[in-house]
Amino acid sequence: MIEKYYCVMGKLAETYNLEARKYKLKARNKEELNKWKKELKSKLKELLGIKNIEKNDLKPKVIEIEELEGYRREKVILETETNVFMPMYVLIPSDLRKGEKRPCIIAAHGHGCAAKDSTAGRIEIPAVKKSIDQYNCDYGLKLVKEGYIVFCNDARGFGERREWMNQGDSEEDLIKNSCNAINNAAISLGKTLLGMMVWDLIRIVDYIETLDYCDEKNIGCIGFSGGGLQAIWLAALEGRIKAAYVSGYFHSFKDALMKTNFCGCNFVPGLWKVIEMGDLGALVSPKALLIESGTKDPLNGERGMVDVQEQFGITKTAYSILNTENKLYHHIFDGVHVFNGGKMRGFFKEYLK
């Protein structure tokens, strides 16, 4: 029996303490904040590898249409970069009138769910029903029933985009992902999985602008867990997003990513030297931003809500500078790692009109 282990994570934490947050929020007024935001956005796009991705023609193809109770579900394939294809569902309310434009919401999925099938609420698939029962992650379906046009995509490495080592049709296979394999390859090429995920969501925004029934001035995003990761990054880097609902993903990189969140989609080379989570939230300002946190969510890290509140305080500083504190919310509920959605309806009703 081994009585002592010689580990390295403690040393990495020391390195973090010495080198972290070179771009931390220090602004004291609007001019300093705007300058910081401009410089930081450019730096983050560089770290994510987004600057290395070339824009191309989306070449959208609608390959399936189903009329369901209260809405239509279209399956669409987009070519988000050359020879990279992304399947997604577009959920369209049945009461959409000819010539009418509706607000749109991009619904990013997290881990442990069966990708777009879960956000779109396809409970006829056993693995999907199981994930929805566990995480309440069918928020795409809930939102189309509120009258929004909703876009539910497969993130890279999930659903129909799983790589060869994770493919298959069993219940277990359907919730697998290829995050680590993709990110390990990507970082050696100057790219990151997170950057590619965010790029794909930006291309959905591009697609929205081509649809005559979409109100391109009223675009929101939502996500739980890994979907919350994608949603906050999209809101921070994409100017066309008006409101973001981030659930189950708002905690410091240090407390959580060294302890709990080890999936490759979280890890960007050099990111910790630049910002913390609260700085990323500050970059979203002055857009409407709602952070949703479960008090017993283990992914918050060992300090729990203390850590979450610290990061929220950093974000709040930016909103205070811009006098837009009324557009920043922290919905705290008594629960574990699950999508709560208690403020979802009111939040989007207020900011997507």
From TrEMBL:
It comes from the Bacteria. Gene3D superfamilies: alpha/beta hydrolase. InterPro entries: AB_hydrolase_fold, Abhydrolase_bac, FrsA_esterase. Pfam families: Abhydrolase_7 (PF12715). PANTHER family: ACETYL XYLAN ESTERASE DOMAIN-CONTAINING PROTEIN (PTHR22946:SF8), DIENELACTONE HYDROLASE DOMAIN-CONTAINING PROTEIN-RELATED (PTHR22946). This is Uncharacterized protein. It comes from Clostridium felsineum.
